[in-house]
Amino acid sequence: MSAQILDGKATAAAIKSDLTARVAALKERGVTPGLGTLLVGDDPGSRWYVNGKHRDCAQVGMASIQRELPASATQEEIEAVVRELNDDPACTGYIVQLPLPKGVDTNRVLELIDPAKDADGLHPTNLGRLVLNETGPLPCTPNGIVTLLRHHGVEINGAHVVVVGRGITVGRSIPLLLTRKSENATVTQCHTGTRDLAAQLKQADIIVAAAGVPGIVKPEYVKPGAAVLDVGVSRDENGKIVGDVHPGVAEVAGWLSPNPGGVGPMTRAELLVNVVEAAERAVGAA
Ligand SMILES: Nc1nc2c(c(=O)[nH]1)N[C@@H](CN(C=O)c1ccc(C(=O)N[C@@H](CCC(=O)O)C(=O)O)cc1)CN2
Predict the structure, then answer these.
(1) Please, what is the end-to-end C-alpha distance for the chain in angstroms?
(2) pTM of the model
(3) 262 is in an annotated binding site
(4) Using CA atoms, how far apart are residues 108 and 40, in angstroms rounded to an integer?
(5) What is the residue with the minimal CA distance to atom 26 of ligand 1?
(6) Where are the alpha helices (DSSP H) in 132-196?
(7) Per the annotation, does 233 bind a ligand?
(8) What angle do CA 229, 233, 235 make, to 5 degrees?
(9) Is 166 assigned a ligand-binding role in the annotation?
């Protein structure tokens, strides 16, 4: 078997085309949605992602506000920029690029973001809304995964999804999305405390690999025909992306998200969706 591709690039392009029309409609009402980013430090990967987000904004006609601080920035300096973005009327929504440098209290920074401007959907208020089934911005990577599966007609309803990882941006929140009535999946969450990862993965109709451990999902752990989403981003000695999914999985899985070209572009597209929706909510168009 050779897995069919869960094409994140093409799916993200379709989302951005829809957003271009929605941004144009907002502009006709005198509102230009703007995405803000705060990058602290000079990690080349983080800078690449942030630049990509600003390129996406330009592509759909959105404004963008780019703020940067050196790796030596103090907690107070970072929080001061967060407060500025909260108060900036040109900024509809924004993100603080993660990870923040060692020594910074990430949770304190994330909690300071105005929940109405939380483009990542990671503020405790918005995660709480998700738990309570209330409307709000959804975490971008988990929402991108759900959209990618739906776009390719992969059945989520009734599926057994096994998530590997419990990080802030994906693992922690994706079970909340997948177990909503609208998705209706059964979710098992695996992490470093899981005794027999292989046994858990063998049960999965859908695998979300977000551990950040290269090749942790091996072909022999995957049920033939399963859908496999590779979220992990590690780099080899040449700087090439190495995902959490072993290349041999392509011979067993029914569906596979490439990495790059799968979940990454979807994360960026859903970020724009959150900002456009915030702007639409503000003018009463959502
Ligand atoms: N505040 C946040 N920080 C981080 C998040 C996040 O969702 N919010 N997620 C990751 C990084 N990330 C988004 O910021 C991200 C990762 C990957 C991509 C992407 O488009 N990747 C490309 C390949 C890129 C490459 O070649 O290096 C792909 O998969 O095709 C976009 C966004 C951590 N931080």
Answers:
(1) 43
(2) 0.97
(3) no
(4) 15
(5) 260
(6) 140-151, 174-178
(7) yes
(8) 140
(9) yes
The finding on whether 212 has its CB within 6 A of some atom of ligand 1 is no
Q: Which residues of 78-114 are buried (b: 16+ CB within 10 A; e: fewer)?
A: bbebbeebeeeeebbbbbbbbebbeebeeeebbeebb
Asked if residue 73 lies in contact with residue 105, where contact means CB atoms within 8 angstroms, the answer is no
Span 132-187, pLDDT tens digits: 999 999 999 999 999 999 999 999 999 999 999 999 999 999 999 999 999 999 99
Helix orientation angle between 140-151 and 8-28, rounded to the nearest 10 degrees: 110
Alpha helices in the chain (DSSP H): 8-28, 44-60, 75-87, 106-112, 124-131, 140-151, 174-178, 197-201, 263-282
Kindly state if the Cβ of 140 falls inside 6 Å of ligand 1.
Answer: yes
Half-sphere exposure of 169 (CA within 13 A, CB side): 25
ipTM, 2 dp: 0.95
CB 147 within 8 A of CB 121: no
Domains of the chain: 30-117 (3.40.50.10860), 140-264 (3.40.50.720)
- Pocket lining: 143 vs ligand 1, CB cutoff 6 Å: no
Centre of ligand 1 to C-alpha 29, Å, is 32
